[in-house]
Amino acid sequence: MPLINVQLFEGRTLEQKRAYAKALTDASVAVLGCSPEAVDVIFHDVKKSDWASGGKLWSDPE
């Protein structure tokens, strides 16, 4: 039973999340041979001020 945790910047629409959850589920079924009901996807919306890359917050101006 795969559990997929997805962290992304906040602001995605429900439609985008639905489509992404479907795509991840379909890929898991195709690759792992599990049933769609066995796939769980959890979305974690993250503020840009709570995410840094290379020592710089994404909310910081360029």
UniProtKB/TrEMBL annotation:
<protein>
    <submittedName>
        <fullName>4-oxalocrotonate tautomerase</fullName>
        <ecNumber>5.3.2.6</ecNumber>
    </submittedName>
</protein>
<dbReference type="Pfam" id="PF01361">
    <property type="entry name" value="Tautomerase"/>
</dbReference>
<dbReference type="GO" id="GO:0016853">
    <property type="term" value="F:isomerase activity"/>
</dbReference>
<keyword id="KW-0413">Isomerase</keyword>
<feature type="domain" description="4-oxalocrotonate tautomerase-like">
    <location>
        <begin position="2"/>
        <end position="58"/>
    </location>
</feature>
<dbReference type="InterPro" id="IPR014347">
    <property type="entry name" value="Tautomerase/MIF_sf"/>
</dbReference>
<comment type="similarity">
    <text>Belongs to the 4-oxalocrotonate tautomerase family.</text>
</comment>
<dbReference type="InterPro" id="IPR004370">
    <property type="entry name" value="4-OT-like_dom"/>
</dbReference>
